[in-house]
Amino acid sequence: MKTGKYYPGLSSFKMIIVLLTFLLSIGSSLGKGSSESRQVDQKRNDAIRRIKAILKQTTYHNESVKSILKITEKATLNFDTYVHIADLAHEFGYHTGELLQIAELTSKVKFETDYFNQIAELSILQAGPGVIELADFISKQDSLNKSEIDSSVQKLKSEAHFKTMDEAMQANKVEMDKINHK
Question: What is the pTM of this model?
Fold first, then answer.
């Protein structure tokens, strides 16, 4: 049996097989990274497209929706949350400051979570300053104690001015009617 010059005991054929296996494993590892990157890009682009569609419908709070769009363009996670926040800013202009804060805090999170959707809705329900405190708390976590956060969400919801999104929507409609009829 022929042996390799640098690896005694391995035939040229075996060395080629080992080398090809190694190169294929590196290639598949690289492909996974680029595949994940493509998925993130695709999700980001979809969110951007959806927010731009919301922006076209927005009459009063264009700048807030544009700011959310800019945050989304840099994001790597939680794209559905940005779309939800942009939609809420479009529908409920009176809370765009809090919604922008929530979008900023969402951008700091290192994992996928739908809690920021709930937090954005708590802002609309006028649940008070605890909403931003909870968003800030979650944004600083590496992992979540779901029971603790669920408890905080329920507490804020029970203290909210509006009990449902429909109730908040109706109040918003009344306010918008007043503005439009002046």
Answer: 0.79
The domain locations on the chain are: 12-180
Which residues have CB under 8 Å from 9's CB, separation 6+?
A: 3
Residues 6+ apart with CB under 8 A from 113: 78, 81, 138, 144
Please report the DSSP string for 95-142 in residue order: GHHHHHHHHHHHTT-SS--SHHHHHHHHHHTT--THHHHHHHHHHT-S
Helix boundaries (H) for the chain: 12-57, 62-74, 79-91, 96-106, 115-124, 130-139, 146-159, 165-180
pLDDT tens digits along 82-134: 999 999 999 987 779 999 999 999 999 999 999 999 999 999 999 899 999 99
Phi (first) and psi of residue 99, to 5 degrees: -65, -40
- Other Cβ atoms within 10 Å of 105 Cβ, number: 19
Cβ pair 77, 111 in contact under 8 A: yes
Q: Helices 62-74 & 79-91, crossing angle to 10 degrees?
A: 180
- Please count the other Cβ atoms lying within 10 Å of the Cβ belonging to residue 37: 11
C-alpha span between 167 and 165 (Å, rounded): 5
